[in-house]
Amino acid sequence: MSGTTVYSARKIITMNPNRPVVSHVAVRDGRILGAGTLDELAGWGEYQLDDRFADKVIMPGLIEGHAHSMEGALWSFTYVGWFDRMDPDGKIWPGVKSIDDVVVRLSETEKKMSDPDAPLLGWGLDPIYMDNVRMTRADLDRVSTTRPVGIMHASGHILNVNTKGLELAGLFKTGNNHPGIPLASDGLPTGELKSPEIMMPAGKHVGMDRAFLAADEMGLRNYGRLCVRAGVTTSSDLGQQLNDDLVALFDKVTGEETYPVCLVAFRINLGVSPKELVDYTLSLTEKSTDRLELGKIKVVADGSIQGFSARMLWPGYYNGAPNGLWYIAPDQLAEIYERALAAGVQVHTHTNGDEATQLTIETLEAALRKHPDFDHRFTLQHCQLASEAQFRKMGRLGMCVNLFANHHFYWGDEHYALTVGPERAERMNACRAALDAGVPMTIHSDAPVTPLGPLFTAGSAATRLTSSGRTQGEVQRINLDEALYAVTMGAAITMKMDDRIGSIEIGKRADFAVLEDDPTEAAPETLKDVRIWGTVQGGRIFEAATI
Amino acid sequence: MKLPVTVIGGYLGAGKTTLINHLLRNANGLRLAVLVNEFGELAIDEDLIEAVDDSLISISGGCVCCAFGNDMIGALEDIRDAEPGFNHVLLEASGVALPGSIMTTVSLVHGLRPDATVVLADAEQIRRNANNKFLSDTIQHQLEQADSLLVTKADLITSEQLADVTKWLKSRVPLARIIPVERGQVPLDAIIGALPLPARGIPPSNSPHSDFASAVLRPDGPVDAEALAEKLAADPTVTRAKGYVSQGNRLALIHVVGNRHAVEEAEGKHEIGVVCIGLKHEFSSQRIEDLAVQSMSAALVHKEASA
Asked: Is the pTM of this model over 0.80?
C-alpha cells in the first residue's frame, strides 16, 4: 500500500454539502482518502502530516468547461490586447492603450527576429476600448515595410495587415469589391480585413498558417502551465478535429509525469459525416486516461453575437444587421443528436443567438422521442441569449448550460448599445434564470477569447459589471457560493465527471486549487483578486511561481 | 490560364452528391478535382474509386476528391499546384453555406478563376425548405447567389408541378438561369464547360435527346471581348458560353456561366469561336449572333450550328 499524506490548511472548502468546510484532507494514490478532522483521518492508519498548506485555503480544483488549448500556442505570437494578461511564464504583459503602443510592442518583437522575411503576428487587439479607432496598413508599415505584419483582433473577426501582407495576399490593388475589404479614399484596401473568408487567405501570409490553428506539443504544455496559474486542474479543450495522430499527441503530452491538468478533448463536428463523428468519438472513449478524457462531441450551430453571425430570433440585431449564419444544417444537427443519443455519446453544442438555442432545443426534443435517455446532459455552450422560456424547456429536457458570464465585462457595453440592445443585454448569460429553471450550470472564459480565469469568471457572474462599471441585469446575478459551485461542481456535472472531480470528498481525485486568500470571504468585486498559490492535481503538487 | 472553380451549393438532399458523381463519370478526359465541404458528406460512387490514401480519393480518369476541413484555401492551393495539373475544380459547399461567400474566397486565391456558382434546388423540397422557420433566409440567399440554378429531381414530379416550381423560383430570383435536371444528369458542358468543343473534337450537346441546344459564334474580326461576355451573361437564354475571340493582334478567352462572366488574355494559338449553349426551348442562335454583331466594330458572324 502506498503512503497517505494528510494536508492541513487554514481552511478547506469542499463543495460537499455534508461537510462544506474541513481542516484536513488525506490523499492516497492521487485520490482523496478523506476530508475532515485530523482525528477522523487518522482512522485510515499510518499517514504523513504535511503542513505546507497550513496557511493556505484549499478548494476543489477549478474546472474550465469551455476553453481552447490554443491559448497556450498563442503566446508564440505577440500580445497586443487592452487588458494586462499573464503568459505561461507568469510574465504579465501590460495592456496596450493606443495604436502607437501597439506599434512599439510589435517593433520590439521585430527587432529580435533574425529571418527578414518571416511574418510577424500580433493578437488580442480590441479597438472597442480605443474609441473604436481603425488601425490601417500605414500603422503596421511603421513596424516593417519588408516583412508581412498582421494583428488578429480579440474578437477574432478582424485581421489587420500591413502593405507587405496585402501584397503577398494579392489584395494590394484597386478594384477589390467585397464588404470584408474596406477601401481608403485612394481605392486601396485600408489593411483591415473582416469576415473569415477574407481573413483566412490573407492570414496565412502573416503567420496564421496551418500550425497556428492546430494543437502542438509546446502549446499544450504552455496551456497546462496557464491552468496552474489559474487554479485549474481540469479543462475542456472544446473543439479539436481529433484523429489518431492528434489523439496520440494529446496522450503523449498529458501523459508526461509533470503534466499538471486533465484535458477533456471534444471532437468537433468538422471534416466528418455525422455517422463517422459519432462512431469515431465513441471509439475514443476507451482511450481516456487519468489526464485525458475523450468521447465527447462539440457541435457549432451558429456564429458570434459581436460578429453579427449568431442566429437571432425576431426582431434580430439592435442595429438592424441581417441575421447571422448557420454553421450546421438543421437536418445534420438532428442526425448527430440521434446517433449520439443512440450511442450514449454526450454532445455539447455552441449556440450564441436565441434562434440557434431554439433550434437545438427543438431538435433534441425530437431526437429524445426516438432515443430516450434519462441522463444525456446535452449541454449548450455560450447560450448567451436564452430566454426564460428556453431555460425552462432545457431544464425539463435534461439539458445543461455553460454560460459566458464574463462577456458582460468585456463586451457588455457593446451588446447594450449595438448588438442586442438594452433589454436583451440585461438577460444575456442569465445565470439566475438557468439555476431557477433547474438547469445544471457552469460558466466559462472561452480562452483565448478571454483569459483563462475561473475566479474572474465567477466574480463576473456575481457582479455582472461591464468594463464601464455598469451592472447589466442585476436580477440575473448569482451569489458567490453559487458562482464558486459553478466553476467546480457545475462544470463537472456538465461534463459528466461529477463522480470523479468537482468537490473535495472521499473517493474523488485529489484535485485542489491552493489559494492565499479565502474566496468565500471576498466580495464579488474582489474575487478576481484572490491570489492563487498553485494546484494539486491527482495528488501532484504544482506551484504557480515555479511552473 | 487560371484554374476554373465551380462552387456547388444547395441545401441537404438537393442532389449535390448525385451531380458530382455524374460529372466525374462523364468527365470526358477532363481532370476534375472535387473538394468536399467541412462535413465530409460526399459519397463518391464506389466503382469510380481507384484508391483511397488518407484524405485523398483517387478517381478513374485522373480525378481526385478530398475533404478540406477548416483549411479550404490550403486545399485549393494544393490542387492548384498539383502535377499533373487539373482542368477544373468542383467545390461542394455545405448545406447551409452561402456559396457566394465561398466564391469570394476562391477569388482571392492567386491562380484560380471563379467559374460559376451552381446552386441546386430539389424540385419537391425547395418550397418546403424555403418555408422552414429556421431555413428560409438561408435558402433565399443561396438561390440569390446562383449563376446557374439547377432544379433537381425534375423526373419525380409532373410537368405541371415543374412549371409551377420554376415559376416560383423565377419569382424568388428573377435573373437566375434555371435548368431542370433529371437523375442528376446534366451535360458536362452546361455546368463546367468542356469547351470549346470543336477544338476538342467533341460534338456539342445537340443530340435529339438533349434539353440543350448550342451554337458557335465565329466573329471574323476584332471583338470587344468584355462587351460580348457581358451581353452573353445578361441574356437569360444563354446557360453557358466559352471560346476565343480576336482582339486585333491577340486573342481573348471568354467565359460565361449564367450571370457570371470573365475574360482572360489567351496564350498560344487558338481557333476563333465561342460556343454558346442554352435550353433548347428558349435558345435562339440568331439572337446570340446579334449579340456578337453588336460587340464587333465591323465583322461578319458565321453561323456554324444551331438548334
From this structure: yes
CATH number among 3.20.20.30, 3.10.310.70, 3.40.50.300, 3.90.10.10, domain A74-212: 3.10.310.70
Q: Note if the bond before A448 is cis, omega within 30 degrees.
A: yes
pLDDT in tens, A450-473: 999 999 999 999 999 999 999 999
ipTM: 0.87
Specify the CATH architecture of the domain B3-190.
3-Layer(aba) Sandwich (3.40)
How far is residue A291 from each of residues A286, A288, A297, B124, measured CA to CA in Å? 13, 8, 18, 51
Do the chains contact at A330 and B74, CB–CB below 8 Å?
no
Q: What is the model's pLDDT at position B304?
A: 43
A331 touches chain B (CB under 8 A): yes
Q: Compute the nearest-CA separation of B94 from chain A (Å).
A: 8
Closest CA to A15 of A513, A528, A477: A513
Q: How far is CA B73 from CA A96, A182, A362, A521, B97, in A?
A: 32, 21, 35, 52, 16
Question: What is the residue extent of each domain of chain B?
Answer: 3-190, 196-302
Domains A74-212 and A215-537 share a fold: no
Q: Read off the C-alpha cell for A389.
A: 422560456
Q: Does A332 touch chain B (CB under 8 A)?
A: yes
C-alpha cell at A87: 503568459
Distances in whole angstroms, Cα of residue A520 to Cα of each of A13, A209, A228, A480, A501: 9, 44, 20, 7, 20
Which chain B residues in 21-40 lie under 8 Å from chain A, judged by CB atoms? 38-40
User: Which superfamily does A215-537 belong to?
Assistant: Metal-dependent hydrolases (3.20.20.140)
Residue B296 pLDDT more than 70? yes
- Cα distance between residue A363 and residue A455, in whole Å: 34
Cα–Cα distance for residue pair A242/B260, rounded to 1 Å: 39
Q: What residues of chain A score a pLDDT lower than 70?
A: 1, 210-214
Closest partner residue to A326 (CB to CB) among B96, B109, B110 is B96
Cβ contacts (< 8 Å) between A322 and chain B: which residues? Answer: 137
Q: Which CATH architecture has domain B196-302?
A: 2-Layer Sandwich (3.30)
B244 contact A CB<8A = no
Query: B30 to each of B23, B36, B115, B215, B254, how far by Cα in Å?
Result: 10, 19, 15, 22, 19
* Alpha-carbon gap, residue A431 to B218, rounded angstroms: 71
Q: What pLDDT digit, counting tens, does each position of A198-214 carry?
A: 887 788 899 887 556 66
Domain ranges of chain A: 74-212, 215-537
What is the C-alpha to C-alpha distance for residues A93 and A511, in angstroms, rounded to an integer? 29
State how far Cα A307 lies from the chain centre.
Answer: 18
Nearest Cα of chain B lies from the Cα of A192 at a distance, in angstroms, of: 15
Interface test with B, best of A326, A351, A357 (most B CBs within 10 A): A326
Report chain B residues whose CB lies below 8 A from the CB of A273: 39-41
Q: Which of A147, A145, A143, A140 is nearest to A161 (CA)?
A: A140
Is the Cα torsion angle B163, B164, B165, B168 positive or negative in sign? Answer: positive
What pLDDT sits at residue B202?
A: 47
Task: Give A-chain residues touching B108 at CB under 8 angstroms.
Answer: 169-171, 197-198, 201-202
Interface contact B234, partner A, CB < 8 A: no
**DSSP-derived 3-state class of residue B210:** coil
What residue has cell string 472531480? Answer: A501
